[in-house]
Amino acid sequence: MLCGLLLALCAGADNPPDRALIEKQLDQLKQEIKQVQSDIRQSRQQHSEQQEELRRIELEIQTQSRSLLAIDQQLADLADQLASLNLHQKSLLTNMSQEQTELASQVRAAHRLGNSSKLKLLLNQDDLGGLARLLAYYSYFNEARLQQIDEIRSRLAELERNQIEIERAQDSVSKLRDSQALVVAERNASRNVRALQVAQLNRRIGSSEQQLTELQRNQADLELLLNRLSKALTDIPKELGSNLRLASLKGRLPPPVGKRPAFRFGDPRGSGIRWQGWQYDLPAGTAISAIGYGRVAFADWLRGYGLMMIIDHGDGYMSLYGHNETLLKEVGDWIETGDTICLSGANSGPGGDGLYFEMRKDGRAINPAAWLKR
Predict the structure, then answer these.
(1) How far apart (Å, rounded) are the C-alpha atoms in residues 342 and 299?
(2) Which of 120, 115, 121 is nearest to 135 (CA)?
(3) How far is CA 43 from CA 150, 171, 220, 298, in A?
């Protein structure tokens, strides 16, 4: 069983399963998802070209958003590196200042002995004991001065190397910010194209009757996907370690985002149809969290729902997150409660922009209000 195999692999069992078998089963699941999407596309010929173009654009925006996330992480790493280098530079300067002070002290001490050579000191001393002490002092101060000079030279060389590293890091930051600006411009352009594409599609849908037909078809596509997934997936095992089953957390699950939904389960959606989940009005790029422990069953584009993520929580429970701009997890990934799984985007069809969230039990939509913390 796929799920049991994945858990056993993660737990490091004494008799680990065949990794190749696990990978093969995951590949089979992904192929099943692709087949479902192909079946849906074949059954939806109307406006197929426009929908395929919309799908291409939204996947392009996701790629650009992922590039920005990678750049942001690189910039954060460089900021840490620069902070460390600057701290090291401050330490070097402090140490070098101390060594310069010590050297100055040695020079002043040597000056008090005078500038006489060892021979002159020998000829001018009648007390042999005093002469021995004076020569010892002379040698000590001379060696101390040389040592302090070597230390300062070493600090200067290290300071120069550190400064070079700082300049290189600053140059990398500058180049990354240029790349960041370019990707942001590309993503904004893609968003504008996408907005025009959606507007054109909505104009084509036009009348209330056509909108109803489109919404019903979108729901039918989702039902087909969920039915096929339920057959392709094995349920979450009973042994969940420290994770509680979803049913035991009813009324205590964290919401996917810290905001009230614009539309709730059962609200009229227009054209004689009602919402089967919650619609949140959110700016693009808002972080979306998983409501509970589970694994990703679907992470791809679906007509009417855009980039969609579906998490299987076991016992027939699933949570759905649609209209995303970026999906941060892949099919087969294990998800902990509260993990950031995607970034919100915009609607791909009739309805408001932002996150669309659903909960399902045995394929039937259920009201999230009874499950999520208020």
Answers:
(1) 10
(2) 121
(3) 81, 53, 11, 20
Q: How far apart are CA 245 and CA 359, in angstroms?
A: 15
Length of the chain, in residues: 374
* b/e sequence 303-320, b meaning 16+ C-beta within 10 Å: bbbbbbbbbbbbebbbbb
- Give the three-state DSSP class for 372: strand
117, amino acid identity: S
Q: Which range is least confidently modeled, 13-17, 209-213, 287-291, 364-368?
A: 13-17
pLDDT at residue number 328? 94
Q: What is the DSSP letter of 349?
A: S
Q: Is residue 4 very low, low, confident or very high in pLDDT (cuts 50, 70, 90)?
A: very low
Paired with 365 in beta bridges are 360
Q: How far apart are CA 215 and CA 246, in angstroms?
A: 29
HSE-CB at 219 with a 13 A cutoff on CA atoms is: 17
The DSSP code for 263 is B
Q: Return the closest-CA partner of residue 23 out of 303, 349, 302, 331.
A: 331
Angle of CA points 279, 280, 281, to nearest 5°: 120
Give the position of tokens 């089967």: 276
**pTM greater than 0.85:** no
- The two tokens of residue 114 are 């005078």
Do 44 and 217 meet the contact criterion of CB atoms below 8 Å apart?
yes
Considering Cα of 353, then 206, then 308, then 63, what sign does the dihedral take? negative
E strands in 217-374: 268-270, 273-274, 278-279, 287-289, 294-302, 306-314, 317-327, 334-335, 340-344, 356-361, 364-366
